[in-house]
Amino acid sequence: MFLNIYLCMLTVVIATSASSLTNRLELPHPREVVSPDVQALLDGLSTQKWQELVSSGLDSINRQKRLEENLLSSEITVRNGSLSHVQLLDTLPNRASNEDSEIALKILKSSLFVYNTQCLPHDIGGEECRAYLENKPLPEGSGLRSECLKLLKSKREGHHAFRRLLDAHYKNGFYETFTEDRLPAPWSISVALYEADNIQKAKQARDHADVNLNLGIAQWAQFVEHDLSKPVSQSMSNGSPIECCNRDQNKLQPRHNHPACAPIVSQASGRYGRANCLNYVRSALAVADCNFGGAEQLNQATGYLDLSQLYGFTPAAERKMRTFVRGNLKSTSNGAHLNDLLPMTSDTDDKGHSFCAWGASANATCFAAGDSRVNSNPYSILVYTIFMRNHNRLAAELMERYPSWSDEKLFQSAKAVNVDIYRRVIMREWLPEVLGSQLATEVLATHQPSSRQSTPEISNEFGVAASRFYFSMLPNELHNLAKNDDDNYVRNTVTPTAPTDLFVLKDQIYRPRIQYTAKKLDQILHSVLNQRALKMDSSYAGGVVWHENTKPGHADILAFDIQRGRDHGLQPYCKYLEVCSQIGPVTGWSDFEKFIPRNALDKMKNIYSSWTEVDLIVGGIAERTVNGTVGATFGCILSEQFAKVHQRHLQEPALPPWSASLLEDYRYMNGSKLLCLNSELRATPQNIFQLPSASNQLIDCDNVV
């Protein structure tokens, strides 16, 4: 399998100069070579034959539409408030994504028809067939080509294909995943890692807490993921969501299986009883160009650190978030800036699925933002709220300074400054904690000549594996640390007797059960800054995986991530280890020992029959950390991505031309001051991602202006 050379030379073990890093990131990506015989054979097909092949592919789409009509008439679709509803909210497509994916699926089906009828009979492998087809335009005059060209001409911000660091890893080279007769089932992997870890976890609880980092490191990691990456699920042709499990959380009858279904199923046994089922719908596909080819997944996010998760990925979504008065974002106003909450949503998508997994008749809290993932948990809601408040605070300051400015000018300027503050916190405060200061400095030193445009796409490996490291750092509960403070942690209030925990994570995922008030958010923020994060490792807290012997009560995030990595055609962990660590070809389990602790490696040996099978997410989270929060392989993938993100920021600065001078006015802002100015906390640590200590002193928020 061919490798991406620019990633191959990047190592997180030995730091190198910034200039050499830049050069490595720009090396070409070698592709599968098409032999002259294959080239001649496929070139020999007539234009009419290519038209027929496309027509055959479209016929399969029409058959799928008839199946969808039967599914809808049988009421096999996602119900409000169900577990499948939770997964849908995490991968909710907008209408434009559905349009992209529908055309991309037509191209894929046509390509698969070429593979099955022209390549397979001549013993042409899937990778070589795909390599040929990726350079073969759709036939002139075909309706599919016209649809494709029309889409590309109206291309929206975002809606790019995820790029690949390594070539796609599919059974047929195009789209077919490796089945569970070869690989262990995702759910069984998650259960095995949880059970093996919990044998000694009670005795070694301290070993699972990070010594210096607070929960802010994981909280902001999720916020960054929401900004840069949003793989979304496929939908039916009319936009209805796809359901792959029945109402009892068991597998559907074969006649009710949609082709996009790849449900996560437990093992039926005497211990577990009948096989349980968690919904998994394969990711929406992207149109990269109007050529034939294999599957490439769509990223609905913009690929920039631009707070699009708050403001919206599209102009239409942004308009929904604006008041169009004084440059403000919408909020649930409670009389003062520091009391404002996110706006409540009454919006639903076309099929009645809101931003929360409540039943259709529920009258419950549900917040609105530019991204459906805002309500994923209280950590997420808090950061969205901080940046909403900061935008409106900036707009008020600018209106006072420039009373003649229009709403549009106030809004765009406040947004630009808000984004600039956010970028500096991420790149200069959060990233060094994740990668280690040396590698983060190298990423920031990456520069290219301004005439060389870097690609806007996010890597598949970043989007569905490396950026998800934070889930292993989240505890089951957020403790109410305020109740033990000698001094009141919130300005102008007295702290009453409070419960031990502020919330249990599993109860809050897309179901905001907390009675949200400004004071409650201050409690959450204070505890986030003072509670230790769990170490990144192969152990996930029980609140984000499902390990019981019963019908699932919540989703299993690790099993979901494993399944999605396979859906997206990611190479196994060993391939990325070879590239990132420069250890040469991996030939056995012993090559993992330098990177993965013995106990974690022993678990893997009991789960996988071969070291060549280990999934990227499983190997990546198990690695020993290297200076920062993550290990060598995830550090490699993250640094590659953030170097590109940083370069794009240099080429396309956030501030609009008329307000470039505003940048200097807000240079004083950092993470600590951001929290002070947008909460009622009395003090925050200088480094908001580390626990307060003698080396990380608290700053008095009353002195921040």
UniProtKB/TrEMBL annotation:
Which key words are in the record? Oxidoreductase, Peroxidase, Signal
The UniProt GO MF terms for this protein read: heme binding; peroxidase activity
A Pfam family of this chain = An_peroxidase
Taxonomically, the superkingdom here is Eukaryota
Coiled-coil parts of chain: none
Q: Which GO terms are recorded in the biological process aspect for this UniProt protein?
A: response to oxidative stress
* InterPro entries, alphabetized: Haem_peroxidase_animal, Haem_peroxidase_sf, Haem_peroxidase_sf_animal
Signal sequence span is 1-18
Q: Which Gene3D superfamilies match?
A: Haem peroxidase domain superfamily, animal type (1.10.640.10)
Give yes or no: UniProt keyword Signal.
yes
Q: What is this protein called?
A: Chorion peroxidase
Q: What is this organism's lineage?
A: Eukaryota, Metazoa, Ecdysozoa, Arthropoda, Hexapoda
